[in-house]
Amino acid sequence: MAKKRTTGNAEKGEKKSTPVSARDKQTLTRLHDLADTVVTTAERSRDPFVDIPARALSNVRFNKSKRFIEMGGNTNRRQLFNLSQAKAYMQTMLVASGCKTLIDQQKSTSIRGLFYLLKHTIEGAKEETFATQDECDPIIEDVEVMLNSLREELHLYAKKAGDMVGPIVLVDRGDEIDCSRMGSGGYGVPSIVEPDVIQFKKCDAKFILHVEKDTVWQRFNEDRFWRKHNCILTHGSGQPPRGVRRMLYRLHNELKLPVYCLLDNDPWGYYIYSVVKQGSINLAFESKRMAIPDAKYLGLRSKDFERCQLSNSVKIQLNDTDAKRAKQIADYPWFADKKAWQKEIELMLSNGFKLEVESLISKDISYVTEEYVPARLRDQDWLD
Amino acid sequence: MPSLAVSPPFPQMKHARNSDARRSDLIGETELATSSQDSSASTAEKGQNGSANGAAHDSNGHEPPAASNGSARKRRATAESMAASQRDISVSEFFAKNRHLLGFDNPRKALLTTIKEAVDNSLDACEEGGILPEVWVHVEQTSPNRFKVGIQDNGPGILKAQIPNIFGKLLYGSKFHRLRMSRGQQGIGISAAGMYGVLTTGKPVKIISKVSPRKPAHYYEIQIDTKKNRPEILNGKGEGVDIPPGESGRKVIEKHEIEWIELDHGTRVTIELEARYQRGRGSVDEYLEQTAIANPHVTLHYVDPEGNETLYERSTTDLPPEPKEIKPHPYGVELGRLMTMLKDTKASTLSQFLTTSFSRVSPGVARKICETAKLSVRASTTKIGRHEADSLFQAIQQTKIGSPATDCLVPIGEELLLKGLHKVVPGEFYVAATRPPAVYRGNPFVIEAALAYGGVSTAQKISLEALTEVLSESDARSLRQFLISTFNGMGSEGAEKILKEADLGQRMSPGKLKPPEIAKLHTAMRSVSLEDGQTMNVMRFANRVPLQFQPGACAITQTIAGTNWRAYGLTQSRGALPNGPVTIMVHMASVWVPFTSESKEAVASYPEIQKELRLALQAVGRKLSMYLRRRLRVKQEGERRNVFLRYLGEVATAVSSINQSDRDKLYERLVNVAKRKTAEADVKLDKSGNKILEDEEEDFGDNVLIVKQPDLDAGLPSPS
Which ipTM score applies to this complex? Predict the structure, then answer.
């Protein structure tokens, strides 16, 4: 531990030489306050604790006027002197100190990197501070909500998982990127897309088509759909990461581009749409800067099996968990009073099967890009 | 009481030996039907009646088996030719052939049984004579498979005239015909040992006995005439010899290779027999150790074949009170016995007979019995026929008769049980319980149980040299078997763990291990914690005699396995002995212990006995669970403190790296909070149970012994 302290001192020396942005200063103050409360409670010989806003369905509220999910005021108290919470408390403090180190050194790391930075054997025990990354990730989210700081403000980023292509030019850390000249790969959306990192330079696109996953995105890119229809094409590898959601939000709000989603016809696809539109339950505190209440659900629809006359072989049976999840989603307050959605979910349940976007390939390889999506856009046939 | 006829015919022997004989009938049956012990008792009654009928049939005359068959086919034997080969069987002949019934199944067990019978006799004699027993046991190897065993006591000695019969005749003794708590019961043991010695080595039994310092010691060389069940005295022209006092006498004794220890009075018996000496479970060493536990008033000197001397010194100088002799209780008497008693009695009237021959029968009770049996109180005992005896027997069962007196029993007592167990079994917690007397089949008995928890297992105590030696002696076929059979409390799980740790094959032969492999095994045995894989070590005693064999057939083991020990904080699979570092000793004291066989290895399962056993086990179990709960709580408190302390350092470092506060000062403060917090929690726990610590210690009662163990809490990690 003595060794650790000396590296801490070295950081201090380093800190003086690097300029710190106003945003970082704010984060540092919050971290400082957190540490100071520990010291003062210990001085008063009380047991230290932290209150962490609860990240659960019970603590989110659907704001009808803003049309997105907001976090409620419930908090969970985490105490140092509670047998079941002692370790989590220790881990919370470790994550906070790790973020402080990152800010001091003006570096950012992945959440996995932070896990490695903080993972060590506890002195005098055979126990690791963090056994797996699964133990570390929720603690990081705890620290985010507790400090009311965004992940990027803590100098952390997640694995990037999402690509973008289309008639738009942007600047990423000073590099100009023309997203219409990205070849077959597209522009990988970074996990931090804040205005100080990415600025939009020029945009000719009229709308955004967000598809569920990479394979579908490849189909649209190869068919140069975005060029034909003058749009931005994105995907988020399933549940879109924060970077992609934030990017969609900025494109939607700053460039006024409508967002259309093409997702699988299953509870999972519905929930992706729900997250893009209203925000996620887990990250409800970020809804205000990520949710796009005007996003539309283009397909696939439960009725598409009949409408597009698909073959029987593309059906995937709904299993029990699917059915359960579908009912759960139908009960979410933000779906509950939408008749079209209730009908949609009911139909899927009565169908007894789900459909993937790729199933349209059974009609024709480019059926989805040449007929399905253009027809939906033309007819303004979507769910809201 | 009349002694047995010189060579009683087999049926008669059965008759005389009564309830005892029927047990020998049942040996096979009992072993087969161990799970349904309750029913085997009733089967026993039938078996008895059956054999009685058979005997009657025999005495009426022998009918040729094929006589009723009218066919003209040629018969293999005629009634006459068969009669030629039909003759008496002497008891000694019978047991010479069936020596396994007496515990002489193999050379190893023969050694143990011989020593056991001799020591039991010595202790009985000393106690009867009111002498604090001191016993010397000497085992010496004379040739590869022969051992000379000498056992001497400081008892009152045996009269010259009685020596030949006691040591040279089966079924001769003082203990069979009375109801009194003693180690020996039948008068078979020591003479059978002598017979076995003569049979296997041809050497006679040598006895020296001295009854008074003023009289010379007698010396006899005896062997048993198995055909006639009669002693044959070999020295002094069939009269034995007197050993002159002083130097000349010593020379005589030395000449006969006897290690006589000079005493005012006492007896030494020397038997040479074919035997095998082996340590471990079921060994002579184990027997003596357990005898010392159950007899804290005895001093034992033991010289093993290697010449090592072991001394078990008495821990009390109080001789147990002398057990009283009682008359049989009417409920415990069968029809046949009743008829014999009627024939033998000196009483003239039925009422007199009932009141004088039985305990708990007052003239009033006798009248009631007679009324129910529709017999006159004044009926002459000589005129009671078979039919009348039967109705008398039925009447006894129907009449309410008080339980037999129980002051004839001398239990070891809780205090001495604890002392004895603590002396020999290492542990941290001891508890004992003595049940109030109870009655089975008219015989009073007392069950006692004592339990030791914790401590190091024998497998971890053994030295490398001892292990090497035990390995070379073992006749186990595999290492796994060796470990399980040699060490108490070692289960198959524990043995497998050790072998895995030592990286040795389970099937390796124990005799073929090389020194480095033995060393590996030794370190593995020391390092592997057996606490989980250990099964309960059970020590069984009947009238202070250890029972070392046939645990599965014994009511004690069965009741232990049938008790739910999980309720008392031990782990246990269904129907098996519980696991854990536990030693339990169970003692049954009774005027007549119902053994399942003559070799006195297992107690028969009478429901009344099982019930008392269960209650005694529950009594010690409850105390054990109290202790384990407390132990667990102390451990949890320690763990809780440790959990906090473990993380405090990390928290202090993290916090100080954020706000540059003094890490050590913060750590110290947090540690203080932690100490206060856990102390608070401890107090709360006590209050919730409405107990404070001192009270709880008293709660255990006075039949408990707790040995302070080194603190379970690991010390606080120093603030670095």
Answer: 0.76
